[in-house]
Amino acid sequence: MVVILKKNANQVQYTNLVEWLKSMNIDIHVCQGTHETILGLIGDTSRLDINLIKALDIVEEVRRIQEPYKNANRKFHPDDTVVSVGDDFKIGGGNFAMIAGPCSVESEEQIIEIAEQVKAAGATMLRGGAFKPRTSPYSFQGLKGEGLKLLLEAKKMTGLPIVTELMDLSDLPLFDEVDVIQVGARNMQNFAMLRELGHLRKPILLKRGLSSTLEELLMSAEYIMAGGNEDVILCERGIRTFETMTRNTLDISAIPVLKTLSHLPVIIDPSHAIGISKYVKPLSMAATAAGADGLIIEVHNNPQYAKCDGQQSLTPAAFQDVADTVRAILPHRYTLNKQM
User: Fold this and answer.
1) What is the pLDDT of residue 275?
2) DSSP letters for 39-60
3) Residue 208: C-alpha distances to residues 82, 135, 149, 234, 237 (Å)
4) How many angstroms separate the CA atoms of 91 and 266, rounded?
5) Is the pLDDT of residue 47 over 50?
6) Contact, 295 vs 270, CB < 8 A?
7) C-alpha angle 215/220/224, rounded to 5°?
8) Concatenated DSSP letters for 243-294?
9) Cβ of 226: how many Cβ atoms within 10 Å?
10) What is the pTM of this model?
11) Is residue 187 very low, low, confident or very high in pLDDT (cuts 50, 70, 90)?
12) How far, in Å, CA of 100 to CA of 113, rounded?
């Protein structure tokens, strides 16, 4: 249920309303918008008398919300959420993020070289896998803790915030200095992990599962937000369909739909969606034009020798071309992040 208050509502009446709702075991999410204050009521609201609440002098309108996701729902929070990363970077609310880097960290020389190149091309954050979820147990599994150290070294050299994937809660203590924790497609419904991440005060990049609906993605975001962490970034990375010519199928419609249903930022991963490097640019253009709040793109200095996903990785020169093209599309709608 959502209670919309009148402008300049009486403070005493407001306090009385909040205390009464809490006495009914209702949790309250307060959203102070530009023109109105909205109280998002979470809990068993079936016992509340809507007509009684509507009759209060300070209440403008009351609406029942049918969707099971409350915190992530735009009806609770009409304004776009802006997620801050470090001191200089933002995602959402007109702030576009360009996240780039290799699928996996392979060596100090490799990650620092790529970090410097993607920064020069306009990247605002550095991505890189230290722990790698692979279909085959015989594939390269990442450098793990050592890979995290190398990412932090690249951050020190370039100033780029880092984005990397958490695969197991037992590794969470290693992520203290990571700027954005990524939850991969395979862990989107790892509810124990999502609950724990809800206790952090650190941005979470939540990827859509290969066969998950948009409502399931939003419910996973709800798990994180219910714990108090509201800095969630949604990521569409392609879904599994009957098509075999590409690795996955990018659901471009997810952008306007998610941005209608939710206030959370939405970014696109064209690399995993298509799985073929030559198609990353047109998908990046389409995602930008459709209203995405950012892109996360795989870049490798020598894709043919990459230990993971070389076929979908751009060279630094190709990434420069994508970044230049995206910049040409953006100015009509977005404020560019500092690095871009």
Assistant:
1) 96
2) EEEES-GGGS-HHHHHTSTTEE
3) 20, 17, 27, 8, 6
4) 9
5) yes
6) yes
7) 140
8) --SSSSB--TTHHHHHHHHB-S-EEE-HHHHH--GGGHHHHHHHHHHTT-SE
9) 17
10) 0.87
11) very high
12) 13
Question: Residue 158: how many CB atoms within 10 A of its CB?
Answer: 20
Distance CA 284, CA 307 (A): 24
The pair of structure tokens assigned to 321 is: 């071309």
Amino acid 340: pLDDT: 47
| Bridge partners, 27 (sequence order) | 42
User: Out of 151-155, 187-191, 235-239, 332-336, which region has the weakest mean confidence (pLDDT)?
Assistant: 332-336
Residues contacting 81, CB < 8 A, separation 6+ = 92, 93, 230, 231, 263, 264, 265
Query: Which runs of consecutive H residues, i.e. helices, occur in 65-187?
Result: 108-121, 145-158
Average pLDDT of every residue of the chain: 92
- pLDDT tens digits along 247-256: 999 999 999 9
Strand 89-91 and strand 95-101: the pairing is: unpaired
Provide, rounded to the nearest whole percent, the portion of the chain with pLDDT above 90.
Answer: 76
Strand pairing category for 2-5 and 59-63: antiparallel
